[in-house]
Design goal:
The structure holds 2 protein chains of 2 kinds. Chain A is mainly alpha-helical. Chain A has helices spanning 16-28, 40-49, 67-76, 95-103, 116-132, 134-141, 145-158, 163-176, 180-193, 197-210, 213-226, 231-243, 247-260, 265-277, 281-295, 304-316, 324-336, 343-357, 364-376, 383-395, 399-413, 419-426, 433-450, 454-467, 472-487, 493-504, 514-526, and strands spanning 8-12, 33-37, 54-58, 85-90, 108-111. The chains are: A mainly alpha, B alpha+beta.
């Protein structure tokens, strides 16, 4: 029997009857400290103030954030101790809900309704598991990955039956310690003997970075056959297609992933970007619309999406007047996101385009300060925003400004499949070769890095950075290596890492690298100088 | 204008409400029971309430499952599951009743850490029904067994009752099961559901199997389910 009396519980549900009925069950189990919340804001607030042992969280909170989005935010803000048990409670196990609940990786999920015995057994098992893992979790909590690895080893030796619980933490520790070859060996062995979702996903992304494309293709074929419901495998399929510069295949893989699990905002953002680059404006608009429908309260959502949507809808109308829905989204940006300084000039630009379509001439003097404002924020925009800003400026006969946005997009986003082709269509005299070369070098370097051949990787990164100092992909890949060197206390590593981050400057929240970018920024700030 | 809803959709949504009602009643009952005098806690009426609530819930789960199956909404979420935990959950749900009826439930695992790969909630419903049947027909013992066989797990539910009627014996396929007389009552319906859920666990070239026989260690009805473990290469 486990003593629940000293544990602190948080019960989250939008229905008060359900909160009190769970509270009733927990009281029967001897729990004394029970907090409750009805919405995501309260959950975050409570988690900032208290450390919970167990959180029972309803997935569907009605209007506002979902359980998935709350959990993402808790992870983002590092408000959850690894010791905390987070159980996602779902009312009905529809596919979208279950997959979404699984994708944000709670410790467990439970289908409503449940009784005392069911809850008790589930909680006891989860608590026992965390107890076994205590030394590992303690080490992870203090970011001591060598100790975490040792603790995993100790559990494997002492209690082999619990070894399976350690695998994931072991993989995380090996990854953080940059012991990629050991990690690869472990993941591959697991894929052969006990393939699981996370394990295949980890192996596939490692092989992608290591450039082992043949092995990866075979793995993805076998894995999607065995696990057809895993959206993460399609994500990696999309990345592999991107690597082969095959936009249609990439879009298809992302669409399959989105069909399986439509509630994950980051994936919808990725689909929108690549569908647009693939000239499929309808799919792009639909994906952005979905971001609004399922994810407007999510931490991954950014109002820049709404500008993209208004812009795409206007674009799709040809030369006709601006469609009503495009105007609707613009109005929302103008009303609700006045404080987002990068967005207002972009919205104003679309308003000028709207007036142009109504046959009203625009004032060159009105445009100049606008272009300046856009220019000041040019590092804040995502790739397809930059391209579209250029397109509208070209429409308004501001060809120099248009060209500067397109070229800026190339310099930063050449690593995004489809961007260079779009720019070549707009600027026939543009030479993408140096950028392509830089990407090739950088990918070779990243592959060598993840094959633990750091010495060989370094000069390639340096060459790539010389060719394309502003390129986000190159800077991020090199920064990954420098971060490791920083952790190994190599001299000057913090300067090299700092330079990469400085060259990147701002980054749109829509960029897929954003979480990693933030992580690096924090690591640099925390490093002793 | 009133929107037309077909009967089965109406039924499915009512079933949801009914399940929630049963859960609410059961929760109220559990907190009341905790405050009752000991002799009332051990009374046959208390067991009757628990048993019937359980049966009702299992029937509704199955009904909802069949609705989803027929509307192609039932999706498999297979994962690795420890068999000791699966059996423990099963035992927990029937514990009071087994005790009250003095039925001896034996659980046998050929490896204490044995894992299977299946949808725990759907397979739980199948086994719930099978155990419910065994409780009704056994004399005094039921056996739950799990073994590692052919890179998969073989689950057995065996009792010491009179066994299945002859026309039910043999391998059950979901196509064959759909021809089972579904008007003949809950046994037929349960088997239809079980056959479909097991068939959903088919893997390429390694189909899942459901078989009914008479005999086994306890020499009564014996249901076996074999489910493959995943293998990529």
């Amino acid at each position: 029997m486990i003593d629940f009396s000293k544990m602190r519980f948080l019960v989250v549900d939008d229905f008060s009857e359900f909160r009190s009925s769970i509270r009733g069950i927990l009281r029967l189990l001897g729990v004394q400290q029970i907090d409750t919340a009805a919405n995501g804001t309260d959950v975050l607030e409570l988690c900032r103030r208290h450390r919970y042992d167990v959180i029972l969280h309803d997935y569907n909170l009605g209007e506002g954030v979902s359980g998935q989005q709350v959990l993402e935010q808790l992870h983002n803000e590092k408000l959850l101790s690894p010791h905390c048990i987070f159980v996602m409670v779902t009312a009905e196990n529809t596919q979208a809900m279950v997959l979404a609940a699984l994708e944000c990786e709670p410790d467990d999920y439970l289908t409503k309704p449940f009784n005392k015995v069911a809850l008790q057994t589930r909680l006891e098992r989860l608590i026992r598991r965390k107890q076994v893992l205590t030394p590992v979790l303690n080490a992870l909590e203090s970011n001591d990955f060598a100790a975490a690895l040792e603790a995993c080893q100790a559990i494997e030796n002492k209690e082999p039956r619990h070894a399976v619980l350690c695998l994931r933490y072991k993989a995380q520790a090996l990854q953080e310690l940059a012991r990629y070859l050991e990690l690869e060996q472990m993941l591959e062995q697991q894929a052969r003997t006990r393939p699981t979702a996370w394990n295949l996903q980890a192996l596939a992304s490692l092989w992608l970075r290591q450039g082992r494309f043949e092995q990866l293709t075979r793995l993805l074929t076998a894995a999607t056959r065995q696990f057809p419901m895993m959206p993460e495998l399609r994500d990696i399929q999309a990345s592999l297609a991107a690597n082969n510069n095959d936009l249609p295949v990439m879009q298809e893989a992302l669409q399959q992933a989105v069909a399986l699990s439509p509630n994950t905002v980051r994936r919808q953002i990725r689909l929108a970007c690549h569908a647009w680059l693939n000239n499929d404006h309808k799919v792009a608009a639909h994906a952005i619309h979905q971001c609004w429908e399922v994810g407007r309260y999510s931490a991954s959502f950014d109002p820049e999406l709404l500008w993209q949507l208004a812009s795409i809808l206007t674009q799709s109308a040809g030369e006709r007047r601006m469609p009503d829905d495009a105007q609707h989204w613009l109005k929302i940006i103008e009303r609700s996101w006045q404080q987002v300084h990068s967005l207002q000039p972009a919205a104003a630009l679309l308003r000028i385009e709207q007036r142009r379509r109504q046959g009203r001439a625009h004032d060159a003097e009105e445009l100049q300060p606008l272009i300046e404002a856009l220019h000041n924020h040019k590092n804040d925009y995502a790739a397809i925003t930059l391209l579209q800003l250029g397109d509208w400026l070209a429409q308004l006969e501001q060809s120099d400004a248009a060209q500067s946005f397109w070229l800026h997009c190339a310099a930063r986003y050449a690593g995004t499949t489809g961007v260079l082709e779009q720019i070549s269509q707009r600027l026939p005299q543009f030479n993408p070769e140096p950028l392509r070369k830089a990407i090739e070098l950088s990918r070779q370097a990243a592959a060598l890095h993840t094959q633990e051949q750091t010495e060989q990787a370094m000069p390639l990164f340096e060459q790539a950075l010389q060719l394309a100092p502003q390129l986000i992909e190159v800077n991020m890949a090199a920064a990954g290596l420098f971060l490791e060197q920083l952790r190994q206390h190599q001299p000057d590593a913090n300067n090299r890492l700092g330079d990469c981050l400085k060259r990147i400057g701002g980054l749109s929240k829509l960029d897929p690298e954003t979480p990693q970018h933030q992580h690096m920024q924090t690591a640099l700030e925390l490093s002793p100088w | 204008m009133v929107k037309q809803i077909d009967f089965s959709t109406l039924m499915a949504s009512s079933v949801h409400d009914m399940k929630n009602i049963i859960a609410a009643i059961s929760q109220a009952y559990e907190s009341m029971l905790a405050q009752m005098p000991k002799e009332l806690q051990r009374s046959s009426q208390a067991r009757l309430i628990e048993q019937e609530a359980l049966r009702l819930d299992a029937m509704l789960m199955q009904l909802l499952g069949i609705y989803k199956l027929e509307h192609n909404q039932l999706r498999l979420q297979p994962e690795y599951c420890r068999l000791d935990e699966l059996f423990e959950d099963l035992h927990n749900r029937h514990r009071e009743l087994l005790q009250y009826r003095n039925i001896d439930l034996q659980i046998k695992l050929d490896d204490p850490d044995l894992e299977g790969f299946f949808d725990a909630s759907l397979m739980g419903t199948v086994l719930d029904n099978a155990l419910g049947n065994a409780v009704n027909y056994c004399r005094s013992s039921i056996l739950l067994q799990a073994e590692f066989v052919d890179n998969g797990v073989l689950l057995t539910i065996n009792d010491d009752g009179p066994g299945y009627p002859a026309h039910h014996l043999g391998a059950v396929h979901n196509q064959a099961a759909s021809s089972i007389d579904r008007d003949s009552g809950s046994t037929g319906l349960g088997l239809y559901f079980a056959a479909n859920i097991v068939a959903m666990h088919d893997q390429e070239e390694r189909p899942a199997r459901l078989e009914l026989s008479n005999g086994g260690p306890l020499s009564g009805a014996c249901m076996t389910i074999w489910l493959a473990l995943p293998s990529l290469f």
